[in-house]
Automatic annotation (TrEMBL):
Keywords: ATP-binding, Cytoplasm, DNA damage, DNA excision, DNA repair, DNA-binding, Excision nuclease, Nucleotide-binding, Repeat. CDD domains: ABC_UvrA_I. This is UvrABC system protein A. PANTHER family: UVRABC SYSTEM PROTEIN A (PTHR43152:SF3). Belongs to the ABC transporter superfamily. UvrA family. GO terms for cellular component: cytoplasm. PROSITE patterns: ABC_TRANSPORTER_2. Its main location: cytoplasm. It is found in: Cytoplasm. InterPro entries: ABC_transporter-like_ATP-bd (IPR003439), P-loop_NTPase (IPR027417).
Length: 523
């Protein structure tokens, strides 16, 4: 048994057909094949999942119960696995308090720098945290925006609380569990229309703080508290868990008004924290810069005393620049990043470590990248390999496939017609293989000589979200239109954000994962 390869025997996960193979270590191994051919089933759900499961098994039961649970993989045996580092396309999760600066730890370094070098001295690093009471803006509580609910958009004043359904919102409709708090409170005549409520009833219905009702009905739970509709909405959907907001996002968007915080002007921090500056900029102004602009600003700071922390920040910024993210603003909220941007940020977090003999697994690292940025990604992957690590890539991009030390082509087709290994070996020999991937590399490039011309147009006017500079765009109807440009040029913002705002009937099919439970299937 050699330890220079990862040996897999009898893999049957999903559509894999009892395959066995040996994967060379300390190489860049690219898994190719049509979508659904079994690449992810082999790389992520067999190799990655089994490696992670075995790592988790080394922990004590207390820690294991708090880690992600992996079932036993449908494979006879896997030998010589390394510790896995799985970098997938799942968008970075987080709430409005999570930004590019916080998830890359650049903000922690900036807080340290301002607490030591900023003038005037206002306190230590927690004073510059918008998540800490000492630093956050007292009005918006550190989120930079003010959210108000227009409750009248879900109320029908001509209806009552009974079966007519005066509250038009999920979980507040007649017999729903949140509706019962109002119906069973004993405060309201259920047959009385909202427009006929007295001032006292209206105040109780909309604004009352949490309390135990005086004379509730017999259905009222003893431990339950009554709360007015507006504070309850704010608690559940503005200040509550992100999962609750995401579940009803479409409904909430039509009743919530968002505007910049009138006190901090979107900078999240209190005035004391914002008064501390370095070379004329406070910490919020620094994070409002793009990666490349902040690098330029830091280069202008000359200080031997603080060179260590300056070097740390510049090193992280250079790594973001290296993966083609120089355009990102550091205060960009993390859940607005695309899957490709999220994956590259995860990649950056591993560039600075000195760990070796790890098993890196990437899911299409080329996705969302302009060809000009792909060379840097290739160099990073090669750098990870050259440090003594093994790299597995699931990839479709021809240029990245060409860089492989070893190729595993899956197929021949997808689903039940896939799950087999069509070819293993070098890229040069792949071109002569019998699979669809080999056929692709043998054929010449072709282009459509007579494209369809449009007669009607979808007009986008004055697009100015994120980095869009008040642009007007006309898109032809009944045609296939491709929006191109370097990463960060505004493609996704224009099509996924601005277009649906101006044309609400737009259906957006993006890279977001389908959220469902274990009971959900394709049927």
């Amino acid at each position: 048994m050699t330890k220079r390869t990862i040996n897999i025997y009898g893999a049957r996960q999903n559509n894999l057909k009892n395959i066995s193979l040996k994967i060379p270590k300390h190489k860049i191994v690219v898994f190719t094949g049509v979508s659904g051919s079994g690449k992810s089933s082999l790389v992520f759900e067999t190799i990655g999942a089994e490696a992670q499961r075995q790592i988790n098994e080394t922990q004590d039961s207390f820690v294991r119960n708090r880690l992600q649970h992996f079932g036993v993989t449908d494979v006879d045996k896997i030998e010589n696995l390394n510790v896995p580092v799985i970098i997938n396309q799942k968008p970075l999760t987080g709430n409005i308090r999570s930004t590019v600066a916080t998830i890359t730890d650049i903000y922690a370094n900036l807080r340290l720098l301002f607490s030591r070098m900023g003038e005037p001295f206002v306190g230590y690093s927690n004073v510059f945290s918008f998540n800490h009471p000492n630093g956050m803006c007292p009005q918006c509580e550190g989120i930079g925006i003010e959210q108000t609910i227009d409750i009248y958009k879900i109320l029908d004043l001509d209806k009552s609380l009974n079966e007519e359904g005066a509250i038009d919102f999920p979980t507040y409709q007649p017999t729903a569990w949140r509706w019962t708090r109002y119906a069973d409170s004993g405060y309201f005549d259920l047959d009385k229309k909202l427009k006929d409520y007295s001032e006292k009833e209206w105040d109780l219905f909309l604004y009352a703080p949490q309390h135990k009702p005086l004379n509730p009905t017999s259905k009222w739970r003893k431990t339950a508290l009554y709360e007015g509709l507006i504070p309850r909405f704010e608690r559940n959907f503005l200040k509550g868990e992100a999962q609750e907001r995401n579940r009803y996002r479409n409904k909430l968007e039509r009743i919530i008004t968002i505007k910049e915080c009138s006190l901090c002007k979107g900078q999240r921090l209190n005035q004391k924290s914002l008064s501390c500056k370095i070379n004329g900029k406070n910490i919020a102004e620094c994070t409002a810069l793009s990666v490349s602009s902040l690098l330029e600003f830091l280069e202008s700071i000359k200080s031997e005393k603080f060179e260590t922390v300056l070097h740390e920040i510049k090193n992280k910024l250079n790594n973001l620049n290296l993966v083609g993210l120089s355009y990102l603003n550091l205060n960009r909220v993390s859940n607005t990043l695309s899957g490709g941007e999220s994956q590259r940020i995860k990649m950056v977090k591993h560039l600075g470590n000195s760990l070796v003999d790890l098993l890196y697994i990437f899911d299409e690292p080329s996705i969302g990248l302009h060809p000009k940025d792909l060379d840097n990604i290739i160099k990073i992957i090669q750098k990870i390999r050259d440090k003594g690590n093994s790299v597995l890539l699931v990839e479709h991009d021809p240029d990245l496939i060409r860089t492989a030390d070893h190729v595993v082509d899956m197929g021949p087709l997808s689903g039940i017609n896939g799950g087999e290994i069509i070819y293993q070996g070098t890229f040069e020999e792949l071109k002569n293989s019998s699979g669809l991937t080999g056929a692709f590399f043998r054929r010449p490039n072709t282009y459509k000589k007579e494209p369809r011309m449009g007669n009607e147009w979808i007009s986008i006017k004055n697009a100015h979200l994120f980095n869009l500079k008040n642009i007007d765009v006309d898109i032809p109807k009944n045609c296939l239109t491709v929006i191109t440009g370097v990463a960060g040029s505004g493609k996704s913002t224009l099509i996924s954000k601005v277009l649906p705002q101006q044309y609400p009937e737009t259906k957006v099919v993006d890279q977001s994962a389908i959220t469902a439970s274990i009971r959900s299937n394709l049927l």
